[in-house]
Design a protein that fits this description.
Two copies of one chain form a homodimer. Chain A is mostly helical and about 190 residues long. Chain A has two domains: about 50 residues, Arc Repressor Mutant, subunit A; about 140 residues, Tetracycline Repressor, domain 2 (Orthogonal Bundle). In chain A, about 80% of the residues lie in helices and about 0% in strands. The longest helix of chain A is centred in the middle third of the chain and has 25 residues. Chain A binds a DNA duplex (30 and 30 nucleotides) through helix 1 and helix 3.
DNA sequence: CCTTTCGCATACCGTCGGTATGTGAAAGCT
DNA sequence: AGCTTTCACATACCGACGGTATGCGAAAGG
């Protein structure tokens, strides 16, 4: 195996195990020794690939965010109508964020570990980006009223984040459907 | 000074400095030695009053939550009309949560330190409680459509939390007004 | 074949959360 | 009043964890 291959393999293994452990136990509860033991390397390897523990988390978060962003975009793009794209994208985000593993990394530890500012930048670069883009298009097309986009985007983003967190712990089997219904009503109210 | 007085005084001082430091630097970045040095006691005192670091944070969070809850309730109760109470309460929460010190403790570190479940329980006991109560009254009064309350409450709660976080870092001076306007439109859409 | 690179291991350190134990003053008892 | 008990801390200490400095051996380059 070449050195580049070996390097890539180790890095991926570190990311895999980190993600698994961070998702399962939370950033603070996971020690670096746990991670390197699970991978079968030492801390030397870890610090060769990442500057510190937060850099490792950053890489994991970027991976998670990109996955969610892709899922949202893919679902939205499947719809031909702009409005339907918007609604489908929102529902897709809610569904994707329902995974507790995604939540712990993306919604719980993300802001606490990196600080809200950097976390926001991550979100803006991936899933939230699609939201503002969609809102912009809908306003340009005259489908929803012309208004400042940023406040609306944050209200909607926060609504979906929190709803997703709640869904994960809700015992009610109809909760997802109820939430999607409430969200849809909320979105519908934006149409002119 | 009696022993009970001394005890109470030390406890309050620990809570004061903890809250200050947690708000300023974040839970993870604050060491217990920082806190006890600032107060002028030792770790012995701290561990005499609190089981561990998370218990200290819990006490601080409870204090913050109760303050916010009181402010929201007070503002809402000043309005005679149920619908106006609802809107005023939401705006009051947004205003109260605009304080970065409140945010760091209540919205950023809260879920990460205690886990989302326990954090939810705290929120439910204070500020979110007022939201569900208000929604229940509005539905009973026929002012908004009859629908599951919990999903709606979480959507709104999340929307306001995220909006507040965004407002704190937004340089735009009109952001608060824009956000309140967008929130008001969102709330208005609930009316039958 | 010799040198350089580099991916990783080993060994070690400071700090932090947490604990076990000591102590002196206030509170209760007779 | 004097003796005992309680208790609000202080002191001393420990293990674990994040982080670093250094060594090493195999692949890459000439």
């Amino acid at each position: 195996m070449s050195r580049a291959e070996q390097r890539e393999q180790t890095r991926r293994a570190l990311l895999r195990e980190s993600r698994r452990l961070f998702a399962a136990e939370g950033y603070g509860a996971v020690g670096l020794s746990q991670i390197v033991n699970a991978v079968g390397v030492t801390k030397g390897a870890l610090y060769h690939h990442f500057d510190d523990k937060t850099a490792l988390f950053r890489a994991v978060l970027a991976q998670v965010q990109e996955e969610v962003g892709r899922r949202v975009a893919a679902t939205a793009d499947a719809e031909p109508d702009p409005w339907d794209q918007f609604v489908a994208g929102c529902h897709a985000f809610l569904t994707a964020s329902a995974d507790p593993a995604i939540q712990r990394i993306m919604l719980i530890d993300g802001p606490a570990v990196l600080g809200w500012n950097e976390w926001r930048a991550f979100d803006e670069a991936t899933s939230a980006r699609h939201l503002t883009d969609a809102l912009t298009r809908l306003i340009e097309a005259g489908i929803i009223a012309r208004q400042p986009i940023a406040p609306l985007a944050h209200l909607l983003s926060g609504a979906m984040n929190e709803a997703a967190l709640w869904l994960a712990t809700s015992a009610d089997p109809g909760a997802l459907a109820d939430t999607k219904a409430a969200l849809t009503r909320m979105l519908e109210s934006l149409r002119t």
